[in-house]
Amino acid sequence: MSSTLIIDSLRKQISSCEAQLKDLRRQLAEAEQLRRQKQEKERLGETTVANDPLDHDMNYGIADAFRSEVYAALSPLAEENVMRRSWPLEKAEYKRYGRQLIMPEIGLQGQLRLKNASVLIVGVGGLGCPAAAYLAGAGVGKIGIIDGDVVEESNLHRQILHSTSRVGMSKVESAMVFLSSLNPNVQLTPHPSRLTPETAIPTMKDYDLVLDCTDTPASRYLISDTCILLSKPLVSASALRIDGQLVVLNNPPLPPGDPKGGPCYRCVFPKPPPPESVVSCGDGGILGPVVGVMGVLQALEALKVLTRTPEPPSLTIFSAHANPMFRTIRLRSRKPKCAACSSSATVTAEALTSGSLDYVQFCGAVNPVEALRPSERISAENYAKVRMGVNPFTGSENRREGHVLVDVRERVQFGICKLEGSVNVPFSEVARTPVTTTAAEVAQMPNRLDGDGDDRKEANAKESWVDELRRNPDKPIFVVCRLGNDSQVTVQKMKQLGLDNGGKRWIGDIKGGLRAWRESVDLEFPDY
Amino acid sequence: MSETKDGDTIPITVEFTGGLEMLFSNQRKHELKLPAKDESEEPANIAFLVRYLCENVMKDPRKDLFVLDDSVRPGILVLINDADWELEGEDMYEIQRRDNILFVSTLHGG
Ligand SMILES: [Zn+2]
């Protein structure tokens, strides 16, 4: 059955590639044909002008008084030749862009502005993919794309330029394939590497407008600073889970120190957020259409920046489950003491290119958790032996049900897959439990929270996991999570809560979490 | 939570977004009756609201994900009736009846 499916799918892929090839050959033939026609016309044009019989008539047969008038009337024809009058757009472009061209918001002038514009898209992920597609579709003349990553399977639910067959290809290359087939008129420039402080200025200097489609605070500060130094407007967006944010910065892009210029990222966020508060899409999750909507809005703002006069700065926030889903908030103007865009700016081109501005250090990083001693940790292989009823250290037989396995992933993840027999205590609940809570304090709690049923219920729920684990004071506790960080923090917290009975009960974590379990014990355990 | 007479409180709406709601019982919108005067009998301002939220509304012990050095932590925008608080006097802004105060945590994913 499955081999039939594979064969069918391969057949389909082959016929789709053949169709693509055919289309490319047709495009090539068309392009060659066009070039031939053009050359032919140019050749004919030259001769027609030279042999134009009216030339002589006009020079000799027209009275001086009329001559200039006649010349004026004929000159456009003489210059452009009736047969090959040059229109501002190519013939195919009128058709291709017709639906936006007829709108007063764009018109011929707007379309020409787009055609003459160059836009750099930093990051072709969830935001950059839809943004690039719409800008290429709209006929932006030059589009640069920069990204250092390769396409992964987990990108495909939202990064619409990439495809299953291009997993493993660089994102920039994959995006080029899609965009060049979408609109061959667009001149695409690939930058297949990560933007760094040293490369930012040379990479960004030739573009009119920059789209920040990246996913870290460090890159957001770097891009904004560079846009200020180069006087480029910046369209910045971000998304996580079901929320998105959008802001147009440095618009108008006036020099640093000019208070009439649009605010920059540092004006709005002078200090980076603490690294532990930064959640990535990989950890927090992201819904495809949510990040898609934000990327599409970036393309929309880009079209507005390129074709209209700037509007006062605002922040648009989107939340899929809110009503209304969109909210637009008036933003501040430039901050008088901004480190990047004020007259007292400390961010300079020299500082940037010399590498003395360390954005990663500025934003901080969450260090890998190394909270536990080796004796408090067990490898996935050894834990597998424990589950088989064998003590991995002494080789002696244990009672199978002689331990508790606590999985501290959030409930949804626990619902996706779990080790048999594990109990779920979400890490958010662990984190929420006050460490100072002693038995005596718990006893006092109902008094303190008297009159607030919700509070008491919640407090009780929080305590219940601790109580639950107190119930079997002799069974060792193994803690597991997705990657082996939260599990360490949990082990520490459990000890602070006194669950180890003053050291009599072993509490430890499974090194490397469920990822290590999959890699060294059970290859079939789902990887999400 | 000390009981206050209705006349001594200001009805306001406080909203959290960008993940901050997780620190506030996973609830985005809170209708509050904020004491009209702060600890030193001054009219309630944003700084007082932030303290009040920490002490009375936030159940999560990770206060540092909301405040840092007695102010809203970096990476959180405070919006007063849909305008950046910078336009309204930041944490000195005196809260009015039926004000809408929105705390937005910036997102970084993309
Ligand atoms: Zn600035």
Automatic annotation (TrEMBL), chain A:
Residues 449-465 have a biased composition (Basic and acidic residues). GO terms for biological process: Mo-molybdopterin cofactor biosynthetic process; protein urmylation; tRNA wobble position uridine thiolation. Keywords: ATP-binding, Coiled coil, Cytoplasm, Metal-binding, Molybdenum cofactor biosynthesis, Multifunctional enzyme, Nucleotide-binding, Nucleotidyltransferase, Transferase, tRNA processing, Ubl conjugation pathway, Zinc. GO terms for cellular component: cytosol. It is an enzyme of class 2 (transferase). Its main location: cytoplasm. It is found in: Cytoplasm, Cytosol. Residues 399-526 form the Rhodanese domain. Zn(2+) binds at residues 264, 267, 338, 341. Residues 7-44 form a coiled coil. Binds 1 zinc ion per subunit. ATP binds at residues 126, 147, 154-158, 171, 215-216. Its cofactor is Zn(2+). The keyword Heme does not apply. It catalyses: [molybdopterin-synthase sulfur-carrier protein]-C-terminal Gly-Gly + ATP + H(+) = [molybdopterin-synthase sulfur-carrier protein]-C-terminal Gly-Gly-AMP + diphosphate; [molybdopterin-synthase sulfur-carrier protein]-C-terminal Gly-Gly-AMP + S-sulfanyl-L-cysteinyl-[cysteine desulfurase] + AH2 = [molybdopterin-synthase sulfur-carrier protein]-C-terminal-Gly-aminoethanethioate + L-cysteinyl-[cysteine desulfurase] + A + AMP + 2 H(+). GO terms for molecular function: ATP binding; metal ion binding; molybdopterin-synthase adenylyltransferase activity; molybdopterin-synthase sulfurtransferase activity; thiosulfate-cyanide sulfurtransferase activity; URM1 activating enzyme activity. Pathway: Cofactor biosynthesis; molybdopterin biosynthesis; tRNA modification; 5-methoxycarbonylmethyl-2-thiouridine-tRNA biosynthesis. Residues 446-465 are annotated as: Disordered. InterPro entries: MOCS3/Uba4, Rhodanese-like_dom, Rhodanese-like_dom_sf, ThiF/MoeB/HesA, ThiF_NAD_FAD-bd, Ubiquitin-activating_enz. HAMAP family: MOCS3_Uba4. Plays a central role in 2-thiolation of mcm(5)S(2)U at tRNA wobble positions of cytosolic tRNA(Lys), tRNA(Glu) and tRNA(Gln). Also essential during biosynthesis of the molybdenum cofactor. Acts by mediating the C-terminal thiocarboxylation of sulfur carriers urm1 and mocs2a. Its N-terminus first activates urm1 and mocs2a as acyl-adenylates (-COAMP), then the persulfide sulfur on the catalytic cysteine is transferred to urm1 and mocs2a to form thiocarboxylation (-COSH) of their C-terminus. In the N-terminal section; belongs to the HesA/MoeB/ThiF family. UBA4 subfamily. This is Adenylyltransferase and sulfurtransferase uba4. The gene is uba4.
TrEMBL record, chain B:
It is found in: Cytoplasm. One of its GO terms (biological process) is tRNA thio-modification. Gene3D superfamilies: 3.10.20.30. C-terminal thiocarboxylation occurs in 2 steps, it is first acyl-adenylated (-COAMP) via the hesA/moeB/thiF part of UBA4, then thiocarboxylated (-COSH) via the rhodanese domain of UBA4. There is a cross-link at residue 110 (Glycyl lysine isopeptide (Gly-Lys) (interchain with K-? in acceptor proteins)). Transmembrane segments: none annotated. The modification 1-thioglycine is found at residue 110. Pathway: tRNA modification; 5-methoxycarbonylmethyl-2-thiouridine-tRNA biosynthesis. InterPro entries: Beta-grasp_dom_sf, Mopterin_synth/thiamin_S_b, Urm1. GO terms for cellular component: cytosol. It holds the Pfam family Urm1. Keywords: Cytoplasm, Isopeptide bond, tRNA processing, Ubl conjugation pathway. It comes from the Eukaryota. Belongs to the URM1 family. Acts as a sulfur carrier required for 2-thiolation of mcm(5)S(2)U at tRNA wobble positions of cytosolic tRNA(Lys), tRNA(Glu) and tRNA(Gln). Serves as sulfur donor in tRNA 2-thiolation reaction by being thiocarboxylated (-COSH) at its C-terminus by the MOCS3 homolog UBA4. The sulfur is then transferred to tRNA to form 2-thiolation of mcm(5)S(2)U. Prior mcm(5) tRNA modification by the elongator complex is required for 2-thiolation. Also acts as a ubiquitin-like protein (UBL) that is covalently conjugated via an isopeptide bond to lysine residues of target proteins such as AHP1. This is Ubiquitin-related modifier 1. The lineage of its organism: Eukaryota, Fungi, Dikarya, Ascomycota, Pezizomycotina.
